[in-house]
TrEMBL record, chain A:
Protein's UniProt name: Mediator of RNA polymerase II transcription subunit 18
PANTHER family per UniProt: MEDIATOR OF RNA POLYMERASE II TRANSCRIPTION SUBUNIT 18 (PTHR13321:SF2), MEDIATOR OF RNA POLYMERASE II TRANSCRIPTION, SUBUNIT 18 (PTHR13321)
Assembly mode: Component of the Mediator complex.
A Pfam family matched in the record: Med18
TrEMBL record, chain B:
PANTHER family noted in UniProt: MEDIATOR OF RNA POLYMERASE II TRANSCRIPTION SUBUNIT 20 (PTHR12465:SF0), UBIQUITIN SPECIFIC PROTEASE HOMOLOG 49 (PTHR12465)
Function statement: Component of the Mediator complex, a coactivator involved in the regulated transcription of nearly all RNA polymerase II-dependent genes. Mediator functions as a bridge to convey information from gene-specific regulatory proteins to the basal RNA polymerase II transcription machinery. Mediator is recruited to promoters by direct interactions with regulatory proteins and serves as a scaffold for the assembly of a functional preinitiation complex with RNA polymerase II and the general transcription factors.
Family, as annotated: Belongs to the Mediator complex subunit 20 family.
GO biological process: regulation of transcription by RNA polymerase II
Pfam families in alphabetical order: Med20 (PF08612)
Name of the protein this chain belongs to: Mediator of RNA polymerase II transcription subunit 20
Organism: Dendrobium catenatum
Length: 217, 216
């Protein structure tokens, strides 16, 4: 299981967000460069149509592959009242022939994107991962070197935290509490419920940038 | 990882398998100095597609194999023979396959037996039985030569061991013999340096032989 919230920020404020996150987390940022391939089951395969994501981590000299399955979100009145989405997620690290394998099983490529940006992983009430990325599209199949930003002026921010059926309440609380710190720069909400950009972001970013100029990190 | 040969018992035409053969094979291992050092268990699963409409022609395989090896408890292997693909994954891939509901684990075969230490060799002898019944489907053996990880370099020593083993087992006058079918690792893009991927390919090769033997 994981708890997740998402938001968007204008690219011009990403540096300010990075300064804020660095200050809050106290850990160095990690580079993110992930080639994400979304596959869907071919016609007539499976009881219901299914979808699986193959993630190729390109941030390290040797690319590594992960299969990720995102399940249904937790439902019910309790889930409606919280501002964080709780959903099942299963991941498995796999060998680099995984795309051929799923093609062999009868899965088809639905779309692919390249996510480029940075992430902070830290512990604050729970393990929290903040990822700030720009989504790139490929002009040709798998042409990651030629990838271009889909929305050059907007970056995506995602906060995820691993959870279990026993502790998700505490993890939700930890994620919600952390989101408060970022409120001057961005709104975070459940995936699919976009809260748009924040009106105060420009002022908050300017303040963060001027503070960091006088206090080098 | 060091080189391993997988062998299966090929019964004489018209004869049936019995656990007696397994007992005799274990005695043979002990007679040549094998020291029992634990149990052996691998689990092989046949995954079959789940189709929405059985009458519509499909472009996916009729089945593929999943394999859990005792020496790699955190890993799981899928073998897609028609495409010559062996995939290594974390054991959690089984949960993903279950959630996708596109293929279902239909038949599970357990390979269970004993492990022996014999000088530079590690031997495993066991039976192959479906998880849902006690029906004996095959008798298998793994021979691992611990000092080497190159398939080519270890070939001669494994061939010599195989000859000695055949001679030992032939004294028992059992109705059949052990066979080692050479897998074509290059077809799967595997190199000379032995890995668990090679073991997975050998299991798939052996499985095809066992199925063919049952059909004879």
């Amino acid at each position: 299981m994981e708890c997740v919230v998402q938001g968007i920020i204008e690219t011009q404020h990403v540096n300010a967000l990075e300064i804020l996150l660095h200050g809050l987390c106290g850990v160095p940022k990690e580079q993110v460069r992930v080639h994400e391939l979304c596959l869907k089951s071919g016609p007539n395969l499976g009881v219901v149509p299914s979808e699986v994501r193959l993630l190729c981590d390109l941030a390290h000299p040797t690319p590594s592959w992960t299969v990720r399955h995102v399940g249904g979100a937790m439902r019910g009145s309790g889930a409606d009242q919280i501002s964080v989405l709780v959903r099942t997620v299963v991941e498995s690290k796999v060998s680099n022939n995984v795309l051929r394998f799923f093609y062999g099983l009868g899965y088809k490529l639905d779309h692919e994107i390249l996510k480029v940006g940075f992430a902070f992983t830290f512990h604050r009430g729970a393990q929290i991962i903040v990822t700030v990325t720009s989504a790139h599209k490929m002009p040709k199949l798998h042409a990651i070197e030629e990838a271009l930003p889909i929305t050059p002026n907007i970056h995506m921010v995602e906060i995820t935290a691993p959870a279990t059926a026993e502790n998700y309440n505490e993890v939700v609380a930890a994620v919600s509490a952390f989101c408060e710190y970022l409120a001057p720069l961005l709104h975070l909400s459940k995936p699919g419920v976009s809260a748009g950009i924040v009106a105060t972001a420009t002022a908050a970013a300017a303040s963060l940038m001027s503070n960091s100029a006088s206090k080098p990190l | 990882m060091t080189v391993k040969w997988l062998m299966h018992w090929q019964p004489k035409p018209g004869t049936t398998l019995s656990t007696q053969i397994l007992t005799e094979a274990c005695q043979c291992v002990e007679s040549i100095g094998g020291q029992k050092d634990g149990r052996w268990r691998s689990v092989l699963t046949f995954y079959k597609p789940m189709q929405r409409d059985a009458l519509v022609p499909v472009d996916h395989p009729r089945d593929f194999l999943g394999l859990a090896l005792q020496e790699q408890p955190a890993k799981y292997y899928f073998i897609l023979r028609p495409n010559r693909i062996v995939l290594e994954a974390d054991a959690s891939i089984q949960v993903i396959m279950e959630k996708l509901q596109s293929y279902k684990a239909r038949v599970t075969l357990n390979f269970e037996g004993f492990q022996y230490k014999l000088g530079d060799f590690q031997l495993r002898v066991g039976k192959c039985v479906p998880s849902a019944s006690e029906a004996l489907r095959g008798i298998m053996m793994e021979v691992e030569y611990i000092p080497l990880s190159s398939i080519d370099k270890s070939r001669q020593v494994l061939e010599e061991f195989f000859d000695i083993w055949q001679e030992t087992i032939s004294k028992k006058s059992l109705p059949g013999h052990f066979m080692h079918i050479e897998s074509n690792f290059a077809d799967y893009g595997l190199q000379d340096r032995y890995t668990s991927h090679h073991t997975a390919v050998q299991y798939a090769t052996c499985m095809a032989q066992l199925i063919a033997a049952v059909r004879c």
